[in-house]
Design goal:
The chain is globular. β13 and β14 form a beta hairpin. The protein contains eight helices and 17 strands. The termini are far apart. The mean pLDDT is about 90. Strands 1, 2, 7, 12, 13, 14, 15 and 16 form an eight-stranded mixed sheet that branches. It has a seven-stranded mixed sheet with strand order 10-9-6-5-4-3-17. It is of the alpha+beta class.
Length: about 350
């Protein structure tokens, strides 16, 4: 696996530090489905699985007005090794500084590369430090199906839901498309397990780090088809930050697709004129010249990087998906609104 600096500037996210591009080979352990992956079947049904067991079943409304989510009961076999106190002490740089972010980004990249139960699959991935946004700053739905590969990412928000894990719920993305449920914005953070008790030793230890400003970043994975960030690593760190009322540091991970940009001689000529004007005037000093150089590099790169979630077919298709959903509730009884549940399990619109 090869690591290199991510020079992408058009992710559209509030980035707070340097990032990496991870080029994962297509041979060996990387050639098949990773331990944590997304599966799909017809009529916009999804299953998020880990270690061969379902974490979530998701149904998206046929008109893309919302979705329903059913949480499974599986544990977390993809998990990265727990962070130790010694590892935290090994990062001596000022928290939040460029060198601090660089150290943690490289650490997480190496952990992902060496994971016993991998999250990565063959292809290119991006790992970047992110800033949490408020609900007011979050990107509103509606989320729409795309007819081209990949799309932009939406910034993470809504950590408060990490402490209120539900078994089944529906979300309103547009209004009127699904039974009444939770209104949400794109970029919501989705926990992959229930929170630890407040008196848990690791939560108490991380609370001390949160108070001192030395909390290591949590790792989030973006699923672009439903506009959500999944917590891959750091549930207890996020819990500690919420209890202390501080904004936690975050690292975002997403698969990258490089969409070719058709060559446009008029646009290219305009880019050259703008860059030459910047070089002659020197307005903005070295930073302005650097921006002009980066603009020229992007123009001649020939690709536009977007986020894309790869999905594999559900074995057995739609009928198998529905049978699993019904069995989950049969063996693990939980309350659910009758209308919402009937819609979620229906094979029709």
């Amino acid at each position: 696996m090869a690591f290199r600096t991510d020079d992408t500037e058009n992710w559209g996210l509030p980035l707070v530090g340097p990032g990496l591009l991870l080029d994962v080979p297509g041979a060996g352990r990387w050639s098949g489905r990773p331990s944590l992956h997304v599966e799909f079947t017809s009529r916009f049904r999804l299953r998020v699985s880990s270690g061969g067991q379902p974490l979530f079943w998701i149904r998206i409304d046929d008109w893309w007005h919302g979705c329903g989510v059913l949480r499974g009961t599986v544990s977390t076999p993809w998990g990265l090794p727990p962070l130790s106190a010694a590892r935290v002490r090994d990062v001596p740089h000022e928290p939040g500084s460029s060198r601090w972010w660089e150290a943690w980004t490289w650490h997480m990249a190496k952990e992902l590369a060496q994971a016993t139960h991998p999250v990565l699959h063959a292809g290119r991935w991006c790992l970047r430090p992110l800033r949490l946004v408020t609900a007011r700053e979050a990107v509103p739905y509606s989320n729409l199906p795309r007819y081209q590969t990949g799309g932009p990412l939406d910034p993470p928000h809504g950590l408060e839901r990490l402490l209120h894990v539900e078994r089944f719920w529906t979300e309103d993305w547009y209004g009127g498309g699904v039974p009444a449920g939770v209104e949400t914005n794109s970029g919501a953070v989705l926990p992959l397990r229930a929170p630890s008790p407040e008196d848990n030793g690791r939560v108490k230890s991380w609370r001390k780090h949160a108070r001192e400003g030395t909390l290591p970043p949590a790792l989030l994975l973006y699923m672009d088809i439903v506009g959500k960030w999944c917590v891959l690593d750091g549930h207890d760190r996020l819990h500690a930050a919420l209890l202390e009322g501080v904004s936690p540091p975050l690292l975002g991970l997403w698969p990258v697709f490089e969409a070719p940009i058709p060559e446009n001689p008029f646009r290219r000529e305009g880019t050259w004129f703008a860059a030459e004007a910047q070089f002659r005037s020197r307005n903005g000093g070295p930073e302005g010249i650097d921006r002009a150089n980066r603009t020229l590099l992007r123009e001649y790169t020939g690709v536009h990087r977007v986020a894309v979630t790869r999905a594999w077919p559900v074995r057995g298709g739609l009928e198998a998906w529905r049978a699993e959903v019904l069995a989950c509730r049969r063996w693990n009884a939980f309350p659910a609104d009758a209308q919402a549940w009937d819609w979620f399990t229906s094979l029709t619109e």
